[in-house]
Design brief:
Blueprint: H1 2-23, E1 35-41, H2 51-67, E2 74-81, E3 88-93, H3 131-141, E4 145-149, E5 156-161
Parallel strand pairs: 1-2
Antiparallel strand pairs: 2-3, 3-5, 4-5
Helix pairs in contact: 1-2, 2-3
């Protein structure tokens, strides 16, 4: 899990840098000030999942978290063993304004861009409202769960992926 997620975070940093250099003369903005942090425990943690789909999920969650982070904020991607054998818990946490509890059930609906908290980043428009719906679809394909979870600060999205014996065929 560690080398895989490390690659996803590196790619997110490269995409942000490329967007920043392309946007420098156009007047549009992108976020390169947010620090991405990876926390995998144990370091040798292994998971069974479709790498392309989970990449899409994590990349979407990182993108959202960065958009909603305060200047020079931190986004953490955390992976742990799940409660079931060979299952995995993935979390993406940010330091932004969070999602009001009354909106938790709606954030994974298509085209829902939220109505209360605005992104912090310059030029952030909140996107198309498809990223979290796509993330839920990909997690559902694995027989997993995705949702907003309690957090002392910011937003915490929790994904639980079952072990290989629990995955629907």
């Amino acid at each position: 899990v560690w080398p895989y997620l490390s690659g996803v975070l590196k790619e997110a940093n490269m995409v942000a840098s490329a967007r920043a250099s392309m946007a420098s003369g156009s007047g549009s903005h992108t976020r390169t000030d947010v620090h991405l942090h990876l926390d995998v425990s144990p370091p040798e943690l292994v998971a069974h999942a479709d790498p392309e789909r989970i990449h899409q999920v994590v990349a979407n969650l990182i993108d959202n978290a960065v958009k909603h982070s305060p200047p020079h904020g931190r986004v953490t991607v955390r992976a742990r063993r799940g409660a079931e054998p060979e299952s995995l818990e993935l979390e993406v946490l940010d330091e932004g304004p969070g999602i009001p509890r009354t909106e938790w059930h709606r954030v994974f609906e298509r085209f829902n861009r939220g109505s209360v908290n605005r992104p912090h980043g310059p030029g952030s428009d909140g996107g198309t409202g498809l990223g979290l719906a796509i993330a839920r679809w990909a997690v559902d394909l694995h027989g997993g769960r995705i949702g907003v979870a309690e957090s002392e600060r910011g937003c915490r999205i929790l994904i639980t992926l079952p072990g290989p014996s629990s995955v629907p065929s």
